[in-house]
Specification:
This protein is mainly α. It is built from 8 helices and no strands. The radius of gyration is 15 Å and the shape is globular.
Amino acid sequence: MLETDALGYDHAILGGLALGMWELPRLVVDAVSYHHEPMRANVQGGDIASLTALVVLASEIEHHLGVSPHYTSLVERELSTHPEAVHLGLDPSTVEEIWVELVQARAEMAALLAR
């Protein structure tokens, strides 16, 4: 990754460090820190594996939302085979049902950050 090559770490580690400094629960800190290496969380199992899977999937969904505001067959196909979605038992139709809300929430967050 470019981040690791340039800085020696990536945003997952940096995000985890920041969340730790803000004294968020260790579970949240670890889930963010592990989201580029979910196998580390899977070894621990339990809540850390599940929360890390959610962070990984949120990142994947954010990527798709950045490409297109439309729920596509590519999104459905990738979610149906994504290891973290399988781990959580997430049915792509569940994501499709809330897709419009995700698009709206992303737009609202972008507007807030642009201020």
